[in-house]
Design brief:
By secondary structure, the chain is mainly β. It contains 1 helix and 23 strands. The longest helix has 4 residues. One of its GO terms (biological process) is inositol catabolic process.
Length: about 270
């Protein structure tokens, strides 16, 4: 059976290529771009933001970075996302550029979306990241809000989510595919998955009410799932912990969503 068109499998990078490179053209949408670079100590990467804003997330490792206005000698603190400490990140507007040099092995996520240049470049330190626990029963997860809607950006929303073994996440099923704010906003979304231990996998389903889209995927370490529309729950398996980095963007920078009616009871008092 062929892989789902919504699943981008991890490809071990060679000759400076990205481990993941999701463009709007590849995804068939308008807003979200997502890239993962795996760097060895001493490696350098440079990019121009052009008409996009960037959120650079140090998923793991230490690095130095320069841009038109920033000069940071030692960014980073965690060596694995499964340390569950907030990451260092960098926000860059359009018409900027950056050079990042890896001081250790580095896993760098590059989140992209259209920008008007409203906000200046800044470092998002761990202390700037809001953390929260969500859910109950077997629907619990731990959330680290890197770039939520109440922090300055033109388009991007960026968040990390940790889900323990045997729990569901992005559940009860919800969607954000209608441009009907404040009831719902249209937001494209990518899920960059990491699994601990790394030989494990999670299940993710992306589906619409009418089932014109209905994809179920076994997702392995460092794979990316693209969510153009519909509901998109994740389920973990016994023995394996899930991390994913979400990137969302659309015409309105608000996270307004609709629960799937059949499963919304899990939010209520009858589910413990």
């Amino acid at each position: 059976m062929s892989a789902s068109p919504l699943l981008s499998k991890y490809c071990k990078p060679e000759d400076g290529n990205a481990a993941q490179d999701i463009t709007p053209e590849k995804a068939g949408w308008q807003y979200v771009g997502f890239e993962v670079q795996e760097l060895k100590a001493g490696d350098t990467i440079s990019q121009a933001t052009e008409d996009q804003e960037y959120c650079l997330v140090l998923v793991s490792g230490l690095a130095s970075l320069t841009s038109k206005t920033l000069n940071e000698d030692n960014l980073g603190q965690r060596m694995s996302p499964f340390e569950r400490t907030p990451p260092y990140s960098v926000y860059l507007p359009n018409d900027d550029q950056f050079t990042l040099t890896a001081l250790t092995d580095v896993e760098l996520a590059i989140c992209k979306a259209p920008s008007k240049g409203t906000y200046p470049a800044r470092v998002i330190a761990p202390a700037d990241v809001g953390v929260e626990h969500r859910g109950k029963g077997f629907n619990k997860r731990f959330v680290q809000n890197i770039l939520p809607e109440d922090k300055p950006a033109d388009s991007l929303l960026v968040v990390e989510v940790f889900t323990d073994e045997g729990n569901t996440s992005s559940y009860p099923s919800h969607k954000h595919d209608q441009d009907n704010c404040p009831a719902e906003t249209y937001l494209e979304e990518t899920y960059y998955h990491r699994i601990d231990p790394p030989q494990g996998f999670v299940f993710q389903r992306v589906y619409t009410d009418d089932r014109s889209l209905d994809e179920s995927m076994a997702v392995y370490d460092k794979d990316v799932v693209m969510v153009p529309k519909g509901y998109h729950p994740v389920a973990t398996l016994a023995g394996y912990t899930s991390y994913y980095l979400n990137v969302m963007a659309g015409p309105t920078r608000r996270w307004c969503f609709t629960w799937e009616k059949d499963h919304n009871w899990v939010n209520g008092p009858d589910y413990k």
